[in-house]
Amino acid sequence: MKPELVVVIFGLLMGCTPAPPATGSSPEAASPVQPVGLDVYRGSAIAQMVCVQCHDIGIAGLPPETQVNAPAFPEVASRGGATSEQLKRWIRTTHPIMPTFMFSEGDVADLAAYIMSLHHPD
């Protein structure tokens, strides 16, 4: 199977489908769908396996599990001045309530890329 097809199938399974055009507009007038990198897909998979236990990871259809008052990933990404480098440091830092996870550098980068992909400007 071609790698491009695997990415498209994985994206569809992850709920990354193009938004429908606005009512009354033609498909040509709709804004183009931005491609999502493999780092974002890998970070999403990590979030679904590990982080969803306590965080709202920003995926529609998954119930937010924030009984421990863990911040929602979309909220973290949208904090003023948030950067990928800050997120990498934050992910590597031990937190009082958060279990210690031993992520590889690649996993940290992928998870930061995923969280930053959830940034929605106000």
Walkthrough of the structure:
The chain is mainly α and 122 residues long. It has helices at 3-13, 38-49, 73-78, 84-92, 105-117. Helix 2 (38-49) packs across helix 5 (105-117). Mean pLDDT is 75; it is low at 1-10 and 12-30.
Ordered list of secondary-structure elements with their pairings:
Elements: H1 3-13, H2 38-49, H3 73-78, H4 84-92, H5 105-117
Cα shape: globular
Helix and strand sequence: HHHHH
Strand portion = under 5%
Tell me how many strands there are.
Answer: 0
How would you classify the helix and strand content by structural class? Answer: mainly alpha
Question: Which features would summarize this protein structure in a list?
Answer:
mainly alpha; disordered N terminus
Short description:
The protein is an all-alpha fold. It has 5 helices and no strands.
